[in-house]
Amino acid sequence: MKVANEWEDYKILDMADGQKLERWGNVILERPDPQIIWNEKSLPKKWGEAEAIYHRSKTGGGSWEYKKQIPAQWQVKYKNLTFNIKTMGFKHTGLFPEQAVNWDWMIKKISQAKRNEHREIRVLNLFAYTGGATVACLSAGASVCHVDSSKGMTTWAKENVNSSKLGDRPVRYIVDDVTKFVNREIRRGNKYDAIIMDPPSYGRGAKGEIWQFENNIYELVELCTEVLSDKPLFFLINSYTTGISSMVLQDILHLTVEKALNSAKIKVKGKIEAGEVGLPMENSKLVLPCGIYGRWESQ
């Protein structure tokens, strides 16, 4: 497991009874997590400091209970990156802090390629949400095409880019269904050196297109091999879909990306790995598993 243990503005303070107690900057939130199946609290008194608690509804969804007045929006930093946080419906805050391990990896890959090969790195970020990966790649000097079907999430991504003082970097924001967009890029002949995707378990595109992870992920990854450049840098898949093993992502990358690159005129050497990402609890040996990843990278 890759553990995001370099945060200063985000901490898990305690975990118990299906809930995690978190500090986001100066704001303490309590949110549910299905992986927390034990009931022993390490810091029982600390839970009373939660300023907002997300309660699940037995009929689906849920709502926030505000114990204190908190800002409608506030910021947290990860190293030199700045993100805007809000309490949203269905317990979210607009950021998945465990993804910091992938941000660090992408930044390192892009920075090394630019330094050693003196070339522009073009990144395609699909299901790009509020732009955590977009901000990371821009900070490393890449150009990014940010694609998401939600206009609201794309606006939020622009705010994160601007808050990180990267508004002058080369970035395109596309509000569209990702499959339709990739098909258009194939017809246009556009190519990318790196592809990132963070597909939902289930979702709808900009015009109501239905996405279901198990039914659509393989075809999308296979489609994306057609927009990879002749010198690809990496291909990253993230997933939070319940019941899907990281080995599934590894297998898909072997069957699509590796196969496509091995059959290309110019053979590209690379390696594939997959695993979990997680978050540590402060002053504890406990680590919360948060999702899975699969990635191909050049060698």
What's the short version?
With 299 residues, this protein is α/β, with parallel strands linked by helices. The chain is built from 6 helices and 17 strands.
Describe, in plain words, how this protein is organized in 3D.
With 299 residues, the protein is of the alpha/beta class. It has six helices and 17 strands. It has helices at residues 100-117, 132-139, 151-163, 178-188, 213-224, 246-262, and strands spanning 2-3, 10-16, 19-24, 27-32, 52-56, 62-66, 74-78, 81-85, 122-126, 143-148, 171-175, 194-197, 202-204, 210-212, 234-239, 270-280, 287-298. An eight-stranded mixed sheet has the order 1-16-17-15-12-9-10-11, with helices on both faces. The chain has a five-stranded mixed sheet with strand order 2-3-4-5-6, with no helix packed on it. The chain has a two-stranded antiparallel ribbon with strand order 7-8. A hairpin with a 5-residue loop joins β5 and β6. α1 (100-117) packs parallel to α2. The longest helix has 18 residues, at 100-117. The radius of gyration is 19 Å and the shape is globular. The mean pLDDT is 95.
Q: Percent of residues in beta strands?
A: 25-35%
Rounded Rg: 19 Å
Secondary-structure class: alpha/beta
Spatial ordering of strands, largest sheet: 1-16-17-15-12-9-10-11
Number of strands: 17
User: Which series of helices and strands comes N to C?
Assistant: EEEEEEEEHEHEHEHEEEHEHEE
Q: Termini, distance in Å?
A: 22 Å
Q: Helix fraction? A: 25-40%
Q: Treating each run of at least 4 consecutive H or I residues as one helix, how many helices?
A: 6
Low-confidence parts: none
